[in-house]
């Protein structure tokens, strides 16, 4: 059973990569192991962009090309086609511009999302779209709605525009024959507002098929209970409920805010508790696939392997359209390509956008990698193994 998916098969994992690309990736992951360098990256890059230093070319050839599909849809096309043609790994185009704070930028993001929808509609290698709620509205407005803070007329009108954008992209996806859309993760103090909008979209568009997926961050201790709520919500309304299960990405920010404001941290106290919460969430969704579609978003090999075992034990086929696996572009290729090779539904998150605008996203990803040192170490181990394998194969020729 454990041999169904071999996560150590580096030949399959890196079949699309040249030796030069592997060496570049090895260098980058080696750098990510040094947390202090990552901390310096944000102020250094901000200074470089403000001073108009010629760094765009360097960034595009290094960290950007490793973790992003391109600056626009056409640049991404080559990447997503290569993923599918060489490994049957599908893609989610993730417009990763962060930090917008005004209606002009929010409307521009919506326009880009609608273009992604049209671009993706007839491409079988792109089954999902994704968007961050804070890409179409301010985090502060989501907070006020979540905490039931009174808003003035201007803020109420702003919230109405956010809701209109939220529905516009969900409606566009629902009007296609097969695309699905994920509402990405945000900070916990925005969740009541985000979850409310997401559930309202499920009510509208998840009657015939699973169109809208919520993201459930299981490093938050109460999110297992939210899965119970979603099950009851789906059953009561006779709809499908899509859920993307992740551990989470805002741990330090959540704890710092809780400490500063004097409330209990919503984050699980340690990694083992988080893992138990995550595993329990996966089990709960699997037990209720009559209501749920499951998207497992993780780079954790143990979690992927355990889900494979559970699917096998429960007689759920590898191609079952209710179960998906996903990893980020440029990371965990040993999971993505080997699972796709075994027949599972696998997608890569392929971030894209103008280099300057995507840098906050890339820095956040770098911080996550450096804070979870085992991820970078595992990437390094696999890259070294494949380079050595190729070296030995060359000698045999």
Outline the structure in words.
- The chain is an alpha/beta fold and 397 residues long.
- The protein has one domain (10-15, 67-358): TIM Barrel (Alpha-Beta Barrel).
- 58% of the residues lie in helices and 11% in strands.
- It has an eight-stranded parallel β-barrel with strand order 1-2-3-4-5-6-7-8, surrounded by seven helices.
- The two termini are 34 Å apart.
- It holds the Pfam family Pro_dh.
- Residues 77-377 form the Proline dehydrogenase domain.
Count of all domains: 1
CATH architecture: Alpha-Beta Barrel
The succession of helices and strands, N to C, reads HHHHHEHEHHEHEHEHHEHEHEHH
* DSSP helix fraction: 55-70%
Quick structural summary:
This protein has 397 residues and is α/β, with parallel strands linked by helices. It contains 16 helices and 8 strands.
Topology, pairings included?
Layout: H1 10-13, H2 19-32, H3 35-50, H4 56-67, H5 73-87, E1 90-95, H6 103-120, E2 128-131, H7 139-146, H8 153-174, E3 180-183, H9 191-205, E4 212-217, H10 223-237, E5 241-246, H11 251-261, H12 271-287, E6 292-297, H13 301-313, E7 323-328, H14 333-341, E8 346-352, H15 355-371, H16 373-396
Parallel strand pairs: 1-2, 1-8, 2-3, 3-4, 4-5, 5-6, 6-7, 7-8
Helix pairs in contact: 2-16, 3-15, 4-15, 6-8, 7-9, 10-12
